[in-house]
Amino acid sequence: MKIGITCYPVYGGSGVVATELGKALARRGHQIHFISYQMPFRLGAVTDSIFFHEVGATTYPIFNNHPYSLALSSKMVDVARYEALDLLHVHYAIPHATSAILARAILRSHGIEVPVVTTLHGTDITIVGQDPTFAPVVTYSIDASDGVTAVSQALRKETYEAFGVTGEITVIPNFVNVERFSRRPECDMHRRLCPKGEKVLVHVSNFRKVKNTPHVVQVFYNLRRRGLPVKLLLVGDGPDRTATEHLARELCVHDHVRFLGKQDPVSGILSLSDVFIMPSGLESFGLAALEAMACGVPVVCSDIGGLPELIAGSGAGFLCPLGDVAAFTDSTAMLLEDDALRARMAAAARAHAIRHFDEDIIVPQYEAYYDSVRARVTA
């Protein structure tokens, strides 16, 4: 199958999932065409079965801002026609689904049928889409898609509650390549970071306000005050990084914190870690937590969104009330202080990731869904 994939190419869950899906599909024999304004962060390089088509930015004096959604539609039409795409799979409702719906209409005017599958990831529904400015467009784009998936039951439920969506939304969870994301032997970096055998707490995000990164530093400060020998690794970058760095300095723990910026791959860093912390205010799935689990790292996460679906009942970590820094501190301290508990939860985390979220379990679900959508559209 020839599949066009559009996603945000920046550091973040939806772009990572879309890119990893494309790479996995290519390994399974499909031809993948990424269509975006820049090379997706995790793509690495094109191959004989992976192609990248850049959406150009043309400036006209009449426009205050470049109309990216229209340029994207035009590029989708161009790629679909000349690469003979079988399907467009867009990640994020706006503008990607909206652009794909327009591209599909243009293609139909030329006698070409290319179904559109839209995957909802989270903030396109929970934040952006519920802005009254965009809500009617989001609703239309979802309902007009030939197929719609969501990454968790929680997101599916919220989409139905927040919008007047009438079509079926199929849940296909995020996934992880458990061979690539696995714990590595201790390396020199670990010995340099922790010369006295300190434990390592890690957080990975795009440092948006919803990720609550200052809470990570507050928890770390509390752990240090309890006398726990621990270091903190913060991976990623974004709007709240500066405020998070300033807080670490104000609390006098900055010498024990490493801001590592955007990293790819993150599996090596996760392999250094003893506990993963995610105090997010919104999390439709929690891909970073899943990648930590696959690396055998117990997780401490907010009890919100799709995180209970990922963690509850797995023995992989703890769910804490949103914003409860004391609860996050207690749960993290329990894992850091009890080596046997941490080892049990680490093993459970890895086993749960393999059993339920391995690439070889989830990607075939997408293939089957593509087939069902194409069969319905062409019937």
Describe, in plain words, how this protein is organized in 3D:
- With 379 residues, the chain is of the alpha/beta class.
- It is 45% helix and 16% strand.
- It contains 15 helices and 13 strands.
- It has helices at 13-27, 68-83, 93-109, 123-126, 135-144, 153-162, 188-193, 213-225, 241-250, 267-270, 287-294, 307-311, 325-337, 339-357, 359-378; strands at 2-6, 31-36, 50-54, 87-91, 116-120, 147-150, 170-171, 199-204, 230-235, 257-261, 275-278, 299-302, 317-320.
- Strands 3-2-1-4-5-6-7 form a seven-stranded parallel β-sheet, with helices on both faces. A six-stranded parallel β-sheet has the order 10-9-8-11-12-13, with helices on both faces.
- Strand 11 (275-278), helix 11 and strand 12 form a beta-alpha-beta unit.
- Helix 2 crosses helix 3, helix 8 (213-225) packs across helix 13 (325-337) and helix 11 (287-294) packs across helix 14.
- The longest helix is centred in the last third of the chain and has 20 residues, at 359-378.
- The radius of gyration is 21 Å and the shape is elongated.
- The chain starts with a strand and ends with a helix.
- The model has no long low-confidence stretch (mean pLDDT 91).
